[in-house]
Amino acid sequence: MKRKSSMADRNSAHPGSTQPLITDYRLELFSPPCLPGAPSWSARVTLESDIEAVLPYLNGQLEGAEYEPDAKVLVWKDQRYKFAFRPREIKAGPAQDREEAQGLVDRAIAVVNDTWRDRERCEPRYDKRPTINLMQIYRLLPRSNCGECGSGTCMAFAAALREGDTELACCPVLAQQTYEANHTKLLEMLGASSG
Known about the structure:
Blueprint: H1 7-10, E1 25-30, E2 41-47, H2 55-61, E3 66-68, E4 73-78, E5 81-86, E6 89-95, H3 98-117, H4 134-140, H5 154-163, H6 180-190
Antiparallel strand pairs: 1-2, 2-6, 3-4, 4-5, 5-6
Helix pairs in contact: 4-5
């Protein structure tokens, strides 16, 4: 699928411009290579314009974004969806069908264009945010693999915590006085929103 735009729109990356940064793109759907035949799809958007200039602003605005300035990529997970922004490409998924994929693409493009439009009121972040180490989380969990949290193992629960897919409160064992210090450390590590 290809979107059309005027010549004026193509000059939107000009400093001080309030034009949308993304106006033209080509959308492709593909099955994840690691899961051939999977019922979910990913969307790849090839961009006509270069969006590298907005990546630090996205890094400053999107909670949970992971920015790799040297690789010129920003990965953002929001709910169950993942988005990867590169200078001339956006990937999003998983989607159940073409309609959902188009919705994810529309959302990603709106995030880029809104952030670009408001960039003078945003603080860009050019640094890479530290990634929470999975083993550090795991070592603070009970490691009993009881499953009361809904995850099969404490390692799976640690991974879900790191990705923001669950909360500490889902582990009833951490509420015991024995694990109070670990619970406090995990809250500090993951942020108060994980409580």
